[in-house]
Each structure stands twice: as structure tokens, then as C-alpha cells.
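## tool: complex_structure
## caller: assistant
## args:
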Amino acid sequence: MKRGEVVVEARGLSMHFGGVRAVDQVDFSLWENELRCLIGPNGAGKSTFFKCLTGQLTPTMGDVVIRDVHVAGRESHEIAALGVGVKTQVPNVFDGLSAEENIWIAARRWHAAKRAKTLTAETIERLQLGDIRSDLVGALAHGQRQWVELGMVVAAEPWLVLLDEPAAGMTHEETARTAELIQEINQTAAMIVVEHDMQFIRMISRQVTLFHEGRILMEDTMDAISSDPRAREVYLGHRA
Amino acid sequence: MKIAQDFRGSVIVAILAALFTLIAPSILEFFTIITLTQVIGLAILALSLALVWGYGGILCFGQTAFFGLGAYAYAVAATNIGGSTGAILIAILVAAAFAAILGYFVFYGRVSDVYLAVITLTVALILYSLIRRTSGPEYKIGNALLGGFNGTGAPPINSPGDGAAMLFPEHTFYVAMAALILVYLLCGWVVKTHFGRVCIAIRENETRAELLAYDTRLYKLGIFTLGAAIAGLGGVFFCVGVSRVTPDVFSLSQSALTIIWVIVGGRGTLIGPILATFALYYLTSALGAQQWLNTNLVLGVILIGFVLLVPKGVIPSITDWADGRRERRVSRSRERRMRVRRSRATAGTEAAE
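## result:
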């Protein structure tokens, strides 16, 4: 596989909360056009690691480099301004605005009014949000809110997309559709996806990084990881 | 889009207000016109908070700090310059500059919402006790004595460029009303712009706005400063209404009243707080004329009543109710059509059989 250049690199990244080492000395690399899944049991540190990448947390030690820019400790909006699209674990949407307005705000950040309007329409088309375009997002169902948030990510036309549990709480069909969407987004952007749902990961991913107790336990294909005794031990809690 | 909907409504409101302005002096008493000018100043203050809190989501408890600074800056500048045009601009600039500096520390220091309310209120109260202590002859800016708790004289407004051509109270009323209408339209336009919509988005979810690469601190500072500039202009009309400015412009009760106007009128509307200002001002004066009911008690009951029963405020509740009615009507007629179609279909099958 041709890998191209490294677009995200974490070096010795650590995040401590008091005495707890949520992320401990993690080295991580993401290549151009790659779609990487981060998995691991609850408390493995994947969401904390994710938040260090997006600027929501300032790492205690170590560095994050996104396309030659050192971003550890930078503000979220500075990281987003590099062309990074982020979807957080808890849906972060503008509840009091319509779905269309939500997406428009994302598109208008990068484009003049006219282009923003067409881009908003295109994004609504692409995510099939036409039926709910003028509904207030606060009144939408959970899965629809997730898609509106994805729509905002997509409308900003990012080259790097970071998604934290994009399929959480979705029905089976919704999950399948989200998987399709993610593969479509991956055509134009490198991606990191934090996920719990193993079936979902099988649908989208080639390369998987397994977190355990704040460290990376292994990095391999989903098949290799699911047949590995160490991985099984981590998930089922057996001791060797 | 939901935000864009009602700019046409704002224009209609503005036209109605302009018509009222033209006929008001011929149907109202002279003293009512003078009082109205003062209330217009308060309405502009309420409008500024409607923008900052209702749209920007910034609960500025001490919006009166900028209001009072505007009033004092006008009085001092007009006394020294001997004309009002430049003084009005100075009043707006002083209020905006003060807000820009205060806002810089508050927003870039990432002070949380609750502390922001406390800090702004504290600033207003500090200004209140500071200005009350300026009663000696040594507290003088140019020719203007600050006058401690007695306050200082605010020269009337004159026609631009001619310091001697003082306006009559009716004309001052026209100017104040024109200012209110223009500021109202300005606010209506601002909340429709890209800047305004981002401010609304930040009110809804600041994290998301940041993740979309908006520097939320800058936007909040922007709307906060704009609101302060408007409040400063309100201060000008408040003090020229009675030709005097006293430290009471900074008082706790004035700060609280401003919040009450916005709550009663409704957050997220511009016209609501303006109308609430006029209505509650009228109510307070009516209550002040009698002896058996304490005015503040009534205001307190109104505030509690609104928070418990009409938490959205008057205007949003009315629009919600109207929207609900329209929707019900639409769905009813849709149902009726479906029923007709169904009965026709059954009739068709029966005929075929």
C-alpha cells in the first residue's frame, strides 16, 4: 500500500488527570488518505487522546503535529482552521437553529455568501437531509442530529476528519448509512474514527489502533486484532 | 432560514414607530413628551441588552455601566465642547472603548458565563460608588463639575454645527425616536449578517462554533462592544430628557430593571424588550402615583410571574402560539383532504364492485 506522507503525528503524548495517566507516552502516525479506527475498552484513553488532537484538552507532555504545524495546547478554532473537521462524542450542534442554518454556518466560514449557499444545498443533498432542512435541530431524533453534525463537518470541506463515536446510539440502518458516508468522506480526507461498535469498524476500516490503559497495545487489521489473544484479554478482562 | 424570516417585520415596526413619532406631539401632553424622551433612552438600553444577551447569549448584568458612561461622557463633553453632535459620538466611543477593554480580559481570559454576569454588575456598582464620591469642586473635567450624588447638568441637543441652536423638547423627542428606530433596524440587520449568525451559533453551542474554526472570543467581544456602544447612546437620550445625569444611572436597581425588561419582552427578539420598557415604565409611574402598593413589590411579582409562567417572554410566546395555530390549521386541512380522497376511493371501489 502506498502511504504518502504523515499528516498527523503524536510524539510521546501524555495526558494526566491528577494521578491518573489517561494517555501515557503515545506515539501515533496517520498517513495521507488513511482511515484509521481507534478502539479499546472504556477508559482506555482513546477519547482523551482524541481531545488532545482537537485542542479540547492541552496534553500534559508530548507533541502533536498536524501537517508540520505543532498544535499541542493550541485553541480548538486554530486547529479547525488548518482544515480539520471534528465531530465530538456528545453531539455538538446548534439546537436553536434549523438543520440548514447549522450547515450554512460551517460553509460560510470558508466561502463567500453565494458559494456558501450552494455548498449548503449540496451538503443537504449529499447527506439526504432534505426532509428536515428547516426543522430545529434541537427537535430532531438522535441519529438525525448526528448527521447534521456530520453535515457541518463535511460542509467545511476538511482534508482531515476526526470523528468520536459517529455511530453511537444509531439504529442498524442508520449505522450502515453512516458507514457509507464515512467511506465517501474518506475519498477526499484522511480520517480518525473512535468507535465501540466492532461491526461498524469492520464495515469501514482497514487499519485499527487498539488502546489499553492509556497506551497503544497494537496496530493491525481488524481481523488480526480480533483473533489476537491479547486483544481478547483486554476486552474480556481475562488475566494471562 | 429561521433567523432571516422577519427583517420585513422589523421594517414594518419601524414604519409604525415613525408614524407614531410624527403624531405624538400633537396628541400627547408636553411633559409626556419629555418623559418619553427619557424612556426612549431606557428602551435603547434594553435593546442593547436584547442584542448582547438575547442574541449573543452573554448575560451582561451591568449593561448600565456603559449606559451611565455614555450619559456622563455626553454631559462632560457637551459642556466642554459647547455642542452636542461631537459629544454624542464621544459618548458612544467612550462606552464602546470601555467595553472593549473589559471584554478583552473577560472573553480572552475565558471567564465563565456566571462570573461574567457578576463581574459586569460589579463594574457598574464600582462606577456607581466612584461617581458618588466626586462631589467636591476638585472633581472637574474641563468645565464640567461631576457633582457627586447630585450629578451634573446635561446640555440639550442642538442642531449639528450650531451650538446655539438648541432643539425644543419636541424635536429632541424626534431625534431620540429616530435614533431608537435606526438602532433597532441596525440590530435587526446585524443579527442577519454572517457576524450576527455566528454570534447566535455561539449562544447555541460555543464548542461547535470553535470546532468550525470560528474564534468565538473575537465574536463575543464584537457583539459585547457593539451592545455597549448602543447602551452609551441610550445614556445620552436618558440624560438630555431631564437635562441632568446622576449616579443613579449606574445603580443596582437600574441594572436589575434592564434585565427584567429583557426577560418580560423576551430573549431572542428585539422589539419585545423595547415594548416591555415602555409598558413597565408606564406601570411604575402609575404605581408611583398611589400609596397602598409598593412599586418594587409589584415589579418583583411581575418578574417571578414571568420566570415561572412565561419564561420565554411575551413576544416569543405570542409568536409560538401563532405558529402553533397555523400548523394545526394546516394539518387539519390536510387531514380533511385525505379524508375526502379516501371516501372518494372507497366510493370508486364500491362502484366498480
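## assistant note: Chain B has a mean pLDDT of 89. The two ends of chain B are 50 Å apart (CA to CA). Handing back to user.
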